[in-house]
Amino acid sequence: MPLTVDLNADVGESFGAWTLGDDAALIPHLTSANVACGFHAGDPSTLARTCALAAGHGVVIGAQVGYRDLAGFGRRFLDIAPADLTADVTYQIGALDALARVAGTRVRYVKPHGALYNTAMHHEGQAAAVIEAVVALDPTLPVLGLSGSALLRRAAAAGLATVAEAFADRAYAADGTLVPRALPGAVITDPEAVIERAVRMVTEREVVTVDGALLEVHPDSLCVHGDTPGAVGLAAQVRSALTAANVALAPFVRA
After folding, report:
1. Which of 51, 125, 170, 221 is the most exposed place for a label (fewest CB within 10 A)?
2. ∠ at Cα 71 (138, 181), nearest 5°?
3. At 173, which CATH number?
4. Is there a domain that residue 255 lies in?
């Protein structure tokens, strides 16, 4: 069977007069779009435009749910009560789905953002709270996350479809977690390195960690961050390199 992988990026993260990323140029290169839901980034008008862009290009929309932390861009841990986190996640998915419906499509999966993504890798309570929201709202929604995380383990136990994600532009620790952004080298900005890692992850199922070890990965979806310098060109090059390596690009769910 030919290899197939999804290519996703974070979009819809502009807010008011503040612009982050070039969604109009980036989205056509993607197969799935992790759209902000207004809590860590994105205002209603931005999210409406982003959903319309994705729908127009046949790109699948996912709800990128995060902490209620606009000032910190959702990259600071919040010690939030599980019931409150479940309500926040439910609210975010529902709001984005309304905007997606107006654009002629739907939210098709859920992915946590930033600190919530990292926390849900190991924090059983917060992982369970996120999954509780998805199960209660729409148990047909897959959950996108890091292999081996509490999030995907909880999702599978609840009967949800799980999608393993890998990051072409983030450094990995030996235990399979992402190197914290506060540390040097956590974000890989060299285009050639990102491209090589992307192809290697999909075709050879491995990535080199920060300490030089080989880590086994089995990505269903590759992420290239929309706020990485040169993200549009990088996404285009990653897609081209994967195609040249006989890898098909396709969303993991139908648009």
Report:
1. 125
2. 80
3. 3.20.20.370
4. no
Residues of the chain with pLDDT under 70: 1
Q: Rounded CA gap, 7 and 224, in Å?
A: 8
3-class DSSP state of 122: coil
Which residue has tokens 């309304």? 98
Residues 144, 145, 148, 152, CA torsion sign = negative
pTM of the model: 0.95
The candidate with the shortest Cα–Cα distance to 147, out of 172, 165, 173, is 165
Q: Tens digits of per-residue pLDDT, 102-131? A: 999 999 999 999 999 999 999 999 999 999
Domain span at residue 119 reads 3-249
Per residue in 157-197, pLDDT (tens digit) is 999 999 999 999 999 999 999 998 889 889 998 999 999 99
pLDDT score, position 2: 78
Angle between helices 191-203 and 231-244 in degrees, nearest 10: 40
Report how many domains make up the chain. 1
Does residue 76 fall inside a structural domain? yes
How far CA 145 is from CA of 17, 121, 134, 221, 222, in Å, comes to: 31, 8, 14, 9, 11
Q: Residue 207: which of 152, 164, 250 has the closest Cα?
A: 164
CB 39 within 8 A of CB 67: yes
Task: Report yes or no: 78 and 68 within 8 Å, Cβ to Cβ.
Answer: yes
Residues 152, 220 contacting (CB under 8 angstroms): no
Which residue type, as a one-letter code, is found at position 139? P
Whether 133 is covered by a domain: the verdict is yes
For residues 28-49, b (16+ Cβ closer than 10 Å) or e, as one string? bbbbbbbbbbbbbbbeeebbbb
Cβ atoms within 10 Å of 83's Cβ, excluding its own: 10
